[in-house]
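With this grant's support, the team has encoded backbone shapes as discrete tokens. A representative record is reproduced below.
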Amino acid sequence: MKFEKIYYCIIIPFLIVSCGNKNNMSEVIIKKFDYPSASAIEYYDGKLYIMGDDAPNLIVLDINLTIIDSIPLILYSGKRIPKDIKPDLEASAIYSINNEPIIFLFGSGSLGPYRNTGWKYNIHTKTKDNIYLQPLYSRIKEAGIEQINIEGAAFVNDKLILVNRGNKGYPKNQFIITNEKFWQNDSSLHVAIIPFETQKDTASFKGISGLCYSKINDQLIMTVSTENTRSAYEDGTIGKSYLWIINNISEKLTSKSAKPDKIIDLEKIDSRFKGQKIESATVIKETDKLIYLALVADNDDGTSTIFKMSIKRD
């Protein structure tokens, strides 16, 4: 796979929209590459792992954003799996089992049976196993979610947080809280739903597209975008993208509702975020002042874009 010749590095004002605006400086690095529909990203030990929702391979990048490996997951000879049969792997999260780092990949569940599967990939041993997610998704429906569209995942302590993205026809974002052994599908599997507060802006629905966890700060960082679609299956025109942040998330896993403590308008960081379908983010590094992130965007044309940036710790 070859990178297209698009590479930017700029320093620009960084505006955080929250309770009182704050200015900061953030370096933004942008790189476009020949890989389809990047929807999930994880960082581990100097490497970035990216999955496209219609891609047959999981790709690995080094910290300089160069593709260094491609791991086949799905048996398909083409570059992009057709929409009606793709597994739609939209969400990912890393969790250690017996000191082995495992990347979990989740199908969106928006079209059975193809999207009701997932994967476990062991970073150390490079072994991979398929996961049958239908029992989990059935419990999610029983818990009250009418339209399943899993778009983000993160482990917080020993809990798995999934996010169900809404749309204009189903204008609800919802957290799904379950245990870390969700894939075993035994009787101990418990599912709890935390709805997001209703959005005041009814003209455009902001859907959560990805999750990552800042462990040092105990913050949940969400990628969010507007999209002109009224279903979990169809794509639509992309509007604006944001980061939403919830503070002290480990204390809020039993809350009755959720809302962001901070909202970051990405277009106000860099105008080139305009029209970008930001799908997911991962924490690369944390210092006493900054959280360094990598974000991915699905360009809907067989290519993807990755961003490296930092946000201020509060």
